[in-house]
Amino acid sequence: MKLIQGALLAILILVLGLTALSCKKKSNPVAPGGGANVTIDIVADMGSGAFGSSPVTVNKGQTVAWRNTRGITHTATADGGAWDTGGIANGSTSAAIQMNTAGSFPYHCAIHPSMTATLVVNP
């Protein structure tokens, strides 16, 4: 009987140990903003410097997200319609957008059209 109790105790300890290991905090490979290769900060509410440094250069296939560090909602909308983040609330980051076409892409905030910048995608 003691042998069975010992075996059950060992199994219980093993199960609890494995459960504890599997509950450890894991890193999230898709952080807010979609885990983009490049994140562009929105740093002002008006003007050509609103999207931080411009132009920002990425390579074809990389992903880009925009992080709103301002108090009001903004967008990042390509002038030619290649992408549109939709509204990005204060403190939020847009979904990552994969840049699959090389070129120079002027963009703006659809809510505040004076906010402009350029994204360059290298081949």
Automatic annotation (TrEMBL):
<dbReference type="InterPro" id="IPR008972">
    <property type="entry name" value="Cupredoxin"/>
</dbReference>
<protein>
    <recommendedName>
        <fullName>EfeO-type cupredoxin-like domain-containing protein</fullName>
    </recommendedName>
</protein>
<dbReference type="InterPro" id="IPR052721">
    <property type="entry name" value="ET_Amicyanin"/>
</dbReference>
